[in-house]
Amino acid sequence: MKDLFKKFKDTGILVIGDLMVDQYIWGKVKRISPEAPVPVVEVTRENLLLGGASNVAHNILSLGGKVFLAGVVGSDESGKVLINKFRESSIETDGIVIDKDRPTTVKTRVIAHNQQVVRFDREVKSDISNATLSLLLQYVRACLPKIKGIIISDYCKGLITKTLVRKVVDLAVPGKFVAVDPKIGHFDYYGGVSFITPNINEASFGSGIEITDENTLIKAGEILFKKIRCKALVITRGDEGMTLFERNGKITHIPTCAQEVYDVSGAGDTVIATLTLSHSAGAPLKEAVVIANYAAGIV
Q1: What pLDDT digit, counting tens, does each position of 27-63 carry?
Q2: Tens of pLDDT along 196-255?
């Protein structure tokens, strides 16, 4: 594993996806509002983190990999915050398109006593324009000589379209690994990609099979495998670990490495980042999934 990790610094990964700001407002609740039966949160601190595809890129960078990022932000204050954070983290911003007609996606979570009170989202989920698509694809072409793998990080915020996925798959010459972290409603977009990592809910929706036990899990996985025509499929199962489906028909269950699972937020980003970086650096597929499982356990 140490030999593999040494290769990360020479392994370039392109992340294409929905960029967003994760805003956290932390506070305490000591009373109920006299105006309505709601808690009054006394704010103690706030912080802004990289969210969505931005978090996937940050995971790759944290693991020592070389990351390239393609996405869209608005010409607003939140967009400036994201770009500044990318630069602070040494993530190049040449692939970031600034679109004055759409806001930067911001998810704001209000947390009191370590419990989320409410979340509100500021976003526009309409598809990106043809002009933006053209700029993104131009950047993808420029990155191809520098990368070994591509991650499509889909959060259903309008950047990942069927046309974009098809063109990226077409551009990815043999040897360029294309992995997708999918979202419900877009499974017909992903045909021909190398790898896909749905969670239980996404796999249930994409296959049309409600996953309730091992038999339905395997049936859903087999349906998705045939539908997407991918090289491999990993269904992430929260506190039950992951299941890897391979083209040779082999199915491997990998138990969770987490000591206690209380929050799965961000684990999907870590899985797709670690798996793609490890496999692109030379790890066999199963080994890459095991490493990703350890990383998800930490998250």
Answers
A1: 999 999 999 999 999 999 999 999 999 999 999 999 9
A2: 999 999 999 999 999 999 999 999 999 998 889 888 999 998 778 899 999 888 999 988
Q: In whole angstroms, what is the distance from residue 152 CA to residue 56 CA?
A: 10
What whole-number distance in Å separates Cα of residue 137 and Cα of residue 167? Answer: 8
Whole-number average pLDDT of the chain: 92
Distance (Å, whole) CA 200 – CA 167: 28
Q: Is the pLDDT of residue 266 over 80?
A: no
Which residue type, as a one-letter code, is found at position 205? F
C-alpha 108/C-alpha 161 separation (Å) is 25
Determine the pLDDT at residue 261.
54
Environment class of 291 (CB within 10 Å of its CB; exposed 0-12, middle 13-18, buried 19+) = buried
SS3 69: strand
State how far the Cα of 244 lies from the Cα of 227, in Å rounded to an integer: 16
CB 162 within 8 A of CB 192: no
Type of residue numbered 251: I
Strands 96-99 and 66-74: parallel
Q: Which amino acid, residue 128?
A: I
Q: Which residues of 96-126 are buried (b: 16+ CB within 10 A; e: fewer)?
A: bbbbeebbbbbbbbbebeeeeeeeeebbeee
- pTM to 2 decimal places: 0.92
Q: How far is Cα 253 from Cα 60, in angstroms, rounded to an integer?
A: 25
269 is catalytic: yes
User: Are 148 and 61 contacting, i.e. CB atoms less than 8 angstroms apart?
Assistant: no
